[in-house]
């Protein structure tokens, strides 16, 4: 995965609106990652232990699926050691009540979808919440 390809795929998503479970009107953290990797030619599984791209939003609203999301994200690709991240690596965060993925962009920044939309975030603000780093290509 080339840095310029990662930058191009990320640029499309930056400042996009947030919408839980509705990619037609915006992105949440899971749909953003699926779309990002699709654009790079990397197809991720859409289902994991009954947790799917189609039902996670409904389950998330009910307070379900946190562990399944974490396990799903941790099952992707291969593990990357801390401080060896490359642009395009998947970061998995566990920040109190939220488990969410982000995409490492290099230069100590990552792309994530929050309620304010898709944004580039300094890695240092969330580095202690990282529970996994996965290389998908």
Describe the structure.
Helices cover 28% and strands 28% of the residues. With 137 residues, it is an alpha+beta fold. The chain has a 6-stranded antiparallel sheet with strand order 3-8-4-5-6-7. Strands 1-2 form a two-stranded antiparallel sheet. Helix 1 packs across helix 2 (29-39). The longest helix is centred in the first third of the chain and has 11 residues, at 3-13.
Summarize this, please?
The chain has 137 residues and is α+β, with helices and mostly antiparallel strands.
- Across the major sheet, the strand order is 3-8-4-5-6-7
How many structural domains?
1
CATH superfamily: endopeptidase domain like (from Nostoc punctiforme)
Which residues form runs of ≥5 with pLDDT under 50?
Answer: none
Helix content: 25-40%
Query: At CATH's second level, what is the architecture?
Result: Alpha-Beta Complex
CATH topology: endopeptidase fold (from Nostoc punctiforme)
CATH classification class: Alpha Beta
Task: Give the SSE layout.
Layout: H1 3-13, H2 29-39, E1 47-48, E2 51-52, H3 56-61, H4 66-75, E3 78-79, E4 90-95, E5 98-106, E6 109-114, E7 117-122, E8 130-135
Antiparallel strand pairs: 1-2, 3-8, 4-5, 4-8, 5-6, 6-7
Helix pairs in contact: 1-2
């Amino acid at each position: 995965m080339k840095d310029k390809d990662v930058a191009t795929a990320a640029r499309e998503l930056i400042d996009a609106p947030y919408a839980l479970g509705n990619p037609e009107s915006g992105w949440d953290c899971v749909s953003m990652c699926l779309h990002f990797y699709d654009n790079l030619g990397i197809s991720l599984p859409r289902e994991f232990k009954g947790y799917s791209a189609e039902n996670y939003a409904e389950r998330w609203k009910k307070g379900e699926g946190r562990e399944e999301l974490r396990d799903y994200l941790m099952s992707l690709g291969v593990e990357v050691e801390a401080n060896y991240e490359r642009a395009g690596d998947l970061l998995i965060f566990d920040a109190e009540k939220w488990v969410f993925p982000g995409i490492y962009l290099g230069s100590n920044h990552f792309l994530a979808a929050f309620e304010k939309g898709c944004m580039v975030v300094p890695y240092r603000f969330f580095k202690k919440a990282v529970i996994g780093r996965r290389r998908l290509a």
